[in-house]
Design a protein that fits this description.
Blueprint lengths: L4 E4 L3 H14 L2 E7 L2 E6 L6 E4 L14 E5 L3 H13 L3 E8 L7 E7 L5 E7 L2
Parallel strand pairs: 1-4, 5-8
Antiparallel strand pairs: 2-3, 3-4, 6-7, 7-8
């Protein structure tokens, strides 16, 4: 259904190390950085998450109510991604742990990137 998403940045020197570390922790990698666009994807897939400056030239800012969720292969990967986010200038929006509703197996963590975009890193624990 979704072809790709973009995440706005004001500073590639801050954003790319952040996303290299956070998305690397959940099994993704930077596929390209060309013409003001960086794309990330799974190691065996295409780049479907783009990092770019906003087209309208205005500052990038986190959207109220908008969040991107990235699947992690394990609880340990969620923890590593959360730690990487904080180490690379992100802010905590919810430490790794089980989340409601009760009875589900959703293990997640929430962070904001340096531009304020909200991200979830999650694993469906078995």
């Amino acid at each position: 259904m979704i072809g790709y998403v973009t995440i706005g940045t004001n500073d590639f020197d801050t954003a790319l190390p952040f996303y290299d570390a956070v998305l690397g922790a959940v099994g993704c990698e930077r596929k390209s950085f060309d013409g003001g666009w960086a794309f990330y994807g799974s190691k065996d897939g295409e780049g479907d998450v783009g990092i770019c400056k906003p087209f309208d030239g205005q500052p990038a800012r986190g959207g109220n109510g908008i969040m991107l969720a990235f699947v992690a292969p394990s609880k340990a990967a969620v923890q590593a991604a959360h730690a990487a986010a904080l180490a690379k200038g992100g802010t905590d929006e919810g430490a790794p742990g089980m989340r409601p509703p009760e009875g589900t197996s959703f293990y997640g963590a929430y962070v904001r990137d340096p531009a304020g975009n909200k991200l979830c890193l999650f694993h469906m624990a078995g």
